[in-house]
Amino acid sequence: MKRLIDLVMGTVLALLSLPVVLLLAAVSALNLRAWPFFVQTRIGAGGVPFRLVKLRTLPVSTNHYADKRAIESIPLTWVSRTLRRTHLDELPQLVLVPIGRMSLVGPRPEMRFLHEEMPASFARRRTEVRPGCTGLWQIGHQCSGLIAEAPEYDLHYVDNRSLLLDLWIVWRTVTMTIHHRTVSIADIPAWIPQAGTVTALRLGQAHPELEIDPAA
Known about the structure:
Bact_transf; 8 helices; mainly alpha; three-stranded antiparallel sheet; globular; about 220 residues; about 10% strand
């Protein structure tokens, strides 16, 4: 069912967003005086690399695989800051959904070097499913940091993934884009089935090899 939804909705959304992507690409090109599309190798389902495309928001002189910590020190134009804050730079990824490289909802695909720095069990678990254009970590309180700093978000999604959870994540993605309000796992409604993974994680009983801080 999830794959069928990705195929149908991914195609529709990719087509509907095309005029917006082209307009933003023109703005990005004028803003940075460079080719507006930025392509990176990321790790997908099963640990298989794939090519991810975004709208360019960083100067061409920036390290192609700079992580969030490095990007924080880079001065950005108003256009670039706006694209990143609203996540509109991610829109081109919708084309990867119908072809099966990504899902509408899932863990964020990570760069290879950051994937390899993760605990092996965590890296393996989060790549059991297709990476998503949005996901629980992407809308979470910890999204300004690195994925490995808050593994409970991806683990909770993988352990409890369902159509209801996906729909809630999509809804909260829309509201976050408008109101800039992130969520915690505790915000997930009770009517969405959950296996209690988070409670175990916070007590250090599940996935102990991840050494998750109980206060996180």
